[in-house]
Queue: 2 jobs
Job 1
Amino acid sequence: MPDKARQRPTRDYDTPRWEDEGPLLPGNRSKDFLRNGIEKGTGRRGVVKHIQERISNQRRQRFYNEALFMQKASGTPGILPVWDVDDVNSSQPRWYVMPPARLLDDALGDDATLLDVVTHITTLAGTLAALADRDTFHRDIKPANLFWYDDAPALGDFGIAAIAGMPAGLTDHFRMRFGVVSSR
């Protein structure tokens, strides 16, 4: 039996308005910050994304920017909405809540036709074009960030997006590879 003093403490993922219902991806400790949640009082189920513990100031700022952008963009067609955000910490939210959504790849399934795929990707391209018109660029388009929500494709995870009026969320890999000097 391991010594209890040496065990990693369990993080409390409950928020003032959302009760933790466990990890979104059980068994994937690297994504433990994505949690199933149930809204206290209403019973509505959502996905709570928490800021990770022990991360760099740059990654912390990227989370803040992502949460605030997604809250502001909520209701924009083609962007996964945010239902709730940590308002206690104002400009430095520690969590935000999205509706449950399926990965677009899973939603399309093996029976999707080429026309289905092209139609949905064209819809997402329109969302990206509308964002570009507002000087906002997602910069992390990949299957894990493409969702199916409310009978339509939607973008999620704006963690490294270049958002108008905010510092670009460059990854450490990009900074090292291209010699970008960190502003930390």
Job 2
Amino acid sequence: MKDILEVIEKIRIANSKEELTAIIDEVASIIGLEYYLLGYTSAESMTSPSTTIIDNYPPKWRETYEKEKLAQHDPTVDYCLNQNAPIIWEQLNCAPLKRDQKNVMCRANDYGLKTGFSIPLHGVHSEFGMFSFGSSEQEKSPSFEAIQKAQIIAPALMDKFKDFDERVGINLTKREKECLLWVSEGKSSWEISIIIGCSERTVVFHLGNATNKLVCTNRYQAVSKAIIIGLIRPMI
């Protein structure tokens, strides 16, 4: 466990993606599998998310994967989007996969990714990621200890990716957040003015400011973006 705690501390003080890559190389040695992939998606836009990948997967496989947009059919991606527990790739092969999904798994095997596992990563601001390790040796099935170690390290990597995120800070006032929150509940400007105790004109003013700050075209897009990046949350 000491080696894992030392790795987490290195991740915490890392200042660049290059340093993080070297640390993940070290993690792969600890895990005992030759290949790794860490992917992170920051979803400021639902249609144009920003994705960063650190990996040492076989280059020809990565090239094919990107060129043919295989992420759309990759069962590991689909699993990690919808689940939280780790998944061993062999378990996916035993699942009722679609033809395109089976094809992705077979082709990955052909390129040298024969066994491995993936850990889903989910952030509080709709960030998504996955942390995978693989081997070119068919008989080298991931051990419980390897998966456990990767699971312990994964949250620290997610936090560090958020630190590296180049998202420009957006500061909304308390009133702007309050108005957006009530828009998300389907309230009109007049209804919001009654709820928060101000004039309708003031509500329109606050919503206009929030929409401009979020670089949106209307209040509804502003609400969506504010929720995605964590500026408004359910009342507790």
